[in-house]
Amino acid sequence: FDPRHYLSTHTCGFPKTGPHRLRFLLESVKDLRETLQKKGSNLVVRKGKPEDVVCDLITQLGSVSAVAFHEEVRELL
């Protein structure tokens, strides 16, 4: 979770992620983790700037051959 997406991010005067959307996201991530664990896997969840968190995870894991990511679509106003 990138705090920049949740703290003081507004579009047209409205928060980008309000309490209901945040709750939905948290419940969805929890459900995904539980589903993966039932299948013998897991989900790593971190809070921070992705450019820092991903670098730290790669360092911790040691052997990483690829990293996939997506970029959020930015609205044009």
Automatic annotation (TrEMBL):
Q: Give the highest taxon in the source lineage.
A: Eukaryota
Keyword Cell wall biogenesis/degradation recorded = no
The alphabetical list of record keywords is: Chromophore
One Pfam annotation, family name? DNA_photolyase
**InterPro entries assigned:** Crypto/Photolyase_N_sf, Cryptochrome/DNA_photolyase_1, DNA_photolyase_N, Rossmann-like_a/b/a_fold
The Gene Ontology biological process terms listed for this entry are: photoreactive repair
Which is an annotated GO molecular function term of this record? deoxyribodipyrimidine photo-lyase activity
Question: What residues does the Photolyase/cryptochrome alpha/beta domain cover?
Answer: 1-77
Against PANTHER family, the record matches this protein to:
CRYPTOCHROME, CRYPTOCHROME DASH
Which protein, by its recorded name, is this? Answer: CRYD protein
According to its UniProt entry, this protein's organism is Calyptomena viridis
* Annotated gene: Crydash_0
